[in-house]
Amino acid sequence: MASSEGTEKNGSSSRKPRSDDATHKSKSITLDQFCSITMPLIDLEKEAEISASMDTIATRKLDVSQKRGSAILNLKCTDVQTGLMGKMLLELQSNKGDLLPSHKFSTHDVVILKTNKAEVGSAPLGQGVVYRIKDTSLTVAFDDIPEDGLNAPLRLEKVANEVTYRRLKDTIITLSKGVQKGPAADLVPVLFGEKAPTFSKKTISFSPFNTGLDHSQKAAVSKALGSGNIFLLHGPPGTGKTTAVVEIILQEVKRGSKVLACAASNIAVDNIVERLANYRVKLVRLGHPARLLPQVLDSALDSQVLKADNNALANDVRKEMKLMNSKLLKAKDRNSKRDIRKELRRLGKEERQRQQQAVTDVLKNSDVILTTLTGALSRQLEGMTFDLVIIDEAAQALEVACWIAILKGSRCILAGDHLQLPPTVQSVDAEKKGLGRTLFARLADLYGSEVMAMLTVQYRMHQLIMNWSSKELYNSKIEAHSSVAAHTLNDLDGVQKTSSTEPTLILIDIAGCDMEEKKDDEDSTMNEGEATVALVHAKKLVDSGVSSSDIGIITPYAAQVSILKIMRNKEKSLKDLEISTVDGFQGREKEAIIISMVRSNSKHEVGFLNDHRRMNVAVTRARRQCCIICDTETVSSDKFLKRLVEYFEEHAEYLSASEYLP
Ligand SMILES: Nc1ncnc2c1ncn2[C@@H]1O[C@H](COP(=O)(O)OP(=O)(O)OP(=O)(O)O)[C@@H](O)[C@H]1O
User: Fold this and answer.
1) What's the pLDDT tens digit per position in 260-305?
2) At CA 264, angle to CA 594 and CA 70, rounded to 5?
3) What is the DSSP string of 472-499?
4) What percent of the chain has pLDDT over 90?
5) Is the CB of 587 under 6 A from ligand 1?
6) pLDDT tens digit string along 4-15?
7) Exposure pattern of 482-513 as b/e (b: 16+ CB <10 Å)?
8) CA contacts within 13 A on the Cβ side of 3
9) pLDDT at position 27, please?
10) Which of 96-110, 243-257, 369-383, 510-524 is predicted with the least confidence, judged by mean pLDDT?
11) Once rounded to an integer, what is the mean pLDDT over residues 510-527?
12) 77 contacts 90 by C-beta, under 8 angstroms
């Protein structure tokens, strides 16, 4: 994956004169080019997702699918509950022992449930959405499922989310037809470098709803409010990007704007909903209830519709229809039967209209509508337009997905950090051909600081953790807020000052310790020696009083995650220690982060460790301690990683892995 560091340019934040348009054009891709390049890449990505799932590959053996993590066999249904506004919640556990086999299911995945014996490709008992995952069970939300089919041994299969791909392709079709008439007619040419972006000539002053905003957040909000079409809010790790997004939304609503607020992931959307809920703002969250956090369910469209007047009227009509139906059963002569049927049709139409009106009323009365990017193409929003579309975590969203939302508004604000990891693209081919290139990164390249403002105060990391990332990726512009600049693990309640908790940075070198990397069946790289060392360090922290839930081990390689989890499960005191890939941990933080870099080979190959964005994400997850375990000889073959090692050599406690082995 190519790195895109250092794209922010110097320059004034005011509107650029038209004479710069030629430069913009030379750097930009045209709308036609974008559409023709992207359409086949969506197909490639869909194919990659389908081949990772199993429903269409009739020849694939079930046990192979389970090994690959796209199916779980031999499940039993241990609980059925109704919840989430009428959904059926099924808890599934393994028939064989406590733990589920290792799998690739995540919350919000679309899945189908079948009996264990059902043929591959046969009709499922039901299709649902994964609601909750534990080591021992999975809970899936179904609209409907036959209860009597649930007694047999069951299996769960992951399926590709067809709706998402259809929506992405529909958006490309809309774009390629031309959007001269829609709400985004004047915005689209700016996003393709054909027209210059505009900004208010005056600095916009505002009285903040959040009185704690720092100077860079205030400046960014002001610039956002003065943007005529596009603005990029650049938020390096821990700098309060979502805090600024929430302030922009509140200020826009105060001005009378109708706002569509989106993000690629449900969790990022819910994060905004939760924070907006602290203010008096009329908002509604669209989305499948199983994909929403429990604390935002009150804001969900379904729950607001349930409370709407028109819904109550629709319920009355439904009751009347029930009565009519029983009359119909009793009616004898043809004429009265015909009259009842006619009345039933009329009532059915009224019920649908009232139900639809209830949805329309909720959406009309809301100042802010929040949904995922693909959710922005849902039926309920058809024909609706917005004064502003704001997209959080835009640097982690496919450009084509951003367009789904952007086409509904006349102005657009993207918040993100193109120096962290872009969205995951499953198809290697589509990735190479540019599907993962984000709109945020493209516009940062096209316009630079002309349309951007960077947040510069961070509220997460000790300054020693921050300094490396600030210097390497953000032109040394980030400062640590005084509340975190010097915080250490032993400042936490119950944590003793020991040789393990005291240092902010630790480098454990495995060079010369006979800990070569290996490959697993799936060709993912792992390093058992490093895994052992990582867990020994984690155990030392726990023994010094650090809570295991405050520690995270992250690594670039999936195989390393698997062996780390197997080893962790043998140690009770590390039960709540989180283990994840770096990519899967983006957006998260822990008091102590242990990074296992894995690569150790005589050829000094570092693979995708050389993506600056991945190491940036890894190091900046840590609040009070960052411990890197690596083979300094191998990783120093890459210049960027060499500078990281040198930084740690200078500022960290430098240890040899041999000190961690029995
Ligand atoms: N002005 C501020 N004063 C004090 N704390 C702040 C301020 N702005 C943000 N924070 C705190 O910083 C943390 C990160 O904020 P927020 O979640 O808004 O950042 P983010 O940039 O969206 O996060 P990420 O780095 O994960 O993308 C939160 O705990 C938040 O309360």
Assistant:
1) 999 998 989 999 999 999 998 999 999 887 788 888 888 898 888 8
2) 70
3) HHSTT--EE-TTTTT--GGGSTT----T
4) 60
5) yes
6) 322 222 222 333
7) eebeebbbbebeebeeeebbebbbbbbbbeeb
8) 17
9) 60
10) 96-110
11) 88
12) yes
Under 8 Å between Cβ of 622 and 589: yes
- Rounded to an integer, the average pLDDT of 497-501 is 96
One-letter amino acid of 83: G
- Distance in Å, CA 422 to ligand 1 centroid: 20
pLDDT of residue 369: 97
> Which atom of ligand 1 is least distant from the CA of 237?
25
Q: How far is the CA of 540 from the centre of ligand 1 (A)?
A: 30
For 326, the token pair is 């029983």
Contact 557, 598 (CB under 8 A): yes
- Tens of pLDDT, residues 554-592: 999 989 999 999 999 999 999 999 999 999 899 899 999
Read off the DSSP letter of residue 112: E
Q: 438 near 397, Cβ under 8 Å?
A: yes
pTM of the predicted protein model: 0.82
120, 54 contact by CB (below 8 A) = yes
Q: Is-contact 627 593, C-beta < 8 A? A: yes
| Ligand 1 near 237 CB (within 6 A) | yes
Nearest CA to ligand 1 atom 28: 240
**Cβ–ligand 1 contact at 240 (below 6 Å):** yes
Residue 128 has pLDDT above 60, yes or no: yes
**Nearest atom within ligand 1 for CA of residue 271:** 17
CA distance 368 to 566: 45
**At 382, phi and psi to the nearest 5?**
-55, 130
User: 4 CA to middle of ligand 1, Å?
Assistant: 24
**For the chain, how are helix, strand and coil distributed in percent, rounded to 5?**
45, 20, 40
pLDDT at 24 over 60: no
Task: Determine if ligand 1 sits within 6 Å of the CB of residue 509.
Answer: no
User: How far is ligand 1, taken at its centre, from the CA of residue 239, in Å?
Assistant: 5
Give strand ranges (E) for 455-605: 457-458, 479-480, 505-509, 518-519, 525-526, 551-555, 578-581, 590-596
CA-based end-to-end distance of the chain: 38
Q: Which residue has the higher pLDDT, 6 or 467?
A: 467
Residue 57 pLDDT greater than 70, yes or no: no
Decide if 373 contacts 401 (C-beta within 8 A): yes
Q: Which of 625, 631, 626 is nearest to 658 (CA)?
A: 631
Note the pLDDT of residue 593. 98
Secondary structure tally for the chain: helices H, strands E: 20, 23
- Rounded CA separation 570/243 (Å): 40
Q: Residue 79: pLDDT band by 50, 70, 90 thresholds?
A: confident
State phi, psi for 580 to the nearest 5 degrees. Answer: -155, 165
Round to whole Å and give the CA distance between 37 and 585: 30
Among 521, 462, 450, 402, smallest CA distance to 228 is for 450
Q: 269: part of which helix (H) or strand (E)?
A: helix 266-276
CA–CA distance, 343 with 321 (Å, rounded to integer): 9
Read off the pLDDT band of 117 (50, 70, 90): confident
Give 53's contacts (C-beta < 8 A, 6+ positions apart): 70, 157, 158, 159, 160
Residue type, 393: E
Tell me, what's the pLDDT at 142? 84
Return left, alpha or beta for 584; rule: phi > 0 is left, psi -120 to 50 is alpha, else beta.
Answer: alpha
**Confidence check: pLDDT of 452 > 50:** yes
CA 396 to chain centroid: 7
Whose C-alpha lies nearest to ligand 1, atom 16?
240
> Is the shortest distance between the CB of 238 and ligand 1 below 6 Å?
yes
